[in-house]
Amino acid sequence: MRIDVSGLTKTYKGGARALDGLSLVVPTGMYGLLGANGAGKTTFMRILAGLLRPTSGRVMIGGHDLAAAEGRLAVQRTLGYLPQDLGVYPDLSARRFLDYIALLKGLHSRSARRRRIGELLEVVALSDVADRKLKGFSGGMLRRVGIAQALLADPRLLIVDEPTTGLDPEERIRFRTLLSQLAGDRTVLLSTHIVDDVAQTCRSLAVLAHGRLAFQGTVGELVSQAHHRVWTVTTPGAAPATGRVVSALPDGAGMRYRVVSAAPPGPWARPAEPTLEDGYLVLMDGRVP
Predict the structure, then answer these.
(1) CATH class held by domain 3-218
(2) Any residues with CB less than 8 A from the CB of 163 and at least 6 apart, and which?
(3) Binning pLDDT at 50, 70 and 90, where does residue 182 land?
(4) pTM (2 d.p.)
(5) What are the sequence ranges of the domains in the chain?
């Protein structure tokens, strides 16, 4: 389900502008929306989900115009949304919680609900704990319950906002794998400030900065912005005085620094292969000293 956004602006009371003339196209498949906290990602997600109205601009999802009531309704029928903070009822089991949400989404047939919930509990690997109360679930397990509730109506568009924040490494990998498997013939829009989540799941992405589009393209194209700008420097002395130090690791009697810089940051600098994080840093810096 393709998303077409043109000139999207959102200004809150008091004059705070969260989105500033945003225009982009999101194709079918897994798509990353990357940006720092406060970049406007959550505002954008809430507009797509029909929870916020933009100040100006146009959003078309699958050919439906969100400015029209019938367009919003048509999109919401094919939408699954996992917000950053999903409210759950801690004294309900996962199965009962999903049953409650299914009723709210219009799945009135009891047998159909049972069948669909059973399928989704398998998909998110929670069948064995489906009858445990949610208050005993880990953060990662709750995020998987969140994905299950978002998938109840088999949506063509799945929006997930900061889904791996606070998860341990094992749960983060599990969640990223699950999202990739769900993409298939639907659009999965992954909004995050964690560069590695996009690097491990998406071929294409957009980068937001201060409510504006800073980049739109493939992961490889963003990585290429850091070509010939990434170096390793191993030295017993201080960190390089030029460039941005990305990492510092002990190396024998000295330290090995990874540095993003337009020119070699010292006589011991050796070129290194760039990563998506390097490309993102070059983009956000505007230029590399």
Answers:
(1) alpha beta
(2) 82, 143, 146, 147, 175, 179, 190, 192, 197
(3) confident
(4) 0.88
(5) 3-218, 225-285
